[in-house]
Amino acid sequence: MDTPLRNVRPNIVQSIRAYGVKDLQAAAEYLGHHFLYANLAKAQSKQDVLELIAAQYTLPAHFGKNFDALYDCMTDMVHKSGPQTGFIVVLEHIPAHSKFDKEAREQLLDIFRDAADYWSDRKIPFRCFYSFSVARSPKGEEPIEVQNEEPMPTDKILDVSPQALRMSSPFNAGYWLAAA
Q1: Mean pLDDT calculated for residue range 145-153
Q2: Which superfamily, per CATH, for 10-130?
Q3: What region holds the Barstar (barnase inhibitor) domain (predicted)?
Q4: Which DSSP string corresponds to 140-169?
């Protein structure tokens, strides 16, 4: 078997893109790393995000439910618990709407970037993969349909990471050829 994630830097925070959660979990098992997974699709606010992470990562009961406490749980507290082999962390469906705006998303990802740096200084791999959720149509509303076209995918979760947005450049020749 080929070494999983051999082309991914050992200490990084990046969009999940081509990786499936089950593949990342299998890679963690193969490498002997901790696998931490949080599905944040139901989160609406910063507090919701922190509560879901706390529950799904099984953070201690005394977790302060703020970004500083999250950083402490991901770094110093774990480091003090004994030798660590590495981490593969997944934050799936980070909210992308007005109650959890771009600044809040960046603050959250900065916590994990800082944690990656912390573990890098200790020569321990810490890879964090994330995806964003898109706004969904309010309950009770039907998806917008255009005659002879498929419904808009407002009910589906999509990756709108910066990399994916860059890949959808207006200079994409396929886009312009299809529009012609």
Answers
A1: 40
A2: Barstar-like (3.30.370.10)
A3: 34-130
A4: TPPPP--TTSPPP-TTS-----HHHHHHT-
User: What does the block give as tokens for 141?
Assistant: 């509303």
Q: Where are the domains of the chain?
A: 10-130
Q: Which whole-number Å values give the CA distances from 142 to 7, 58, 109, 139, 151, in the listed order?
A: 43, 37, 33, 8, 9
Query: Distance between terminal CA atoms of the chain?
Result: 46
In whole angstroms, what separates CA 56 from the centre of its chain? 13
Give yes or no for residue 139 having a pLDDT over 70.
Answer: no
Residue 98 CA to residue 175 CA, distance in Å, equals 29
| d(C-alpha 157, C-alpha 118), whole Å | 31
DSSP 11: E
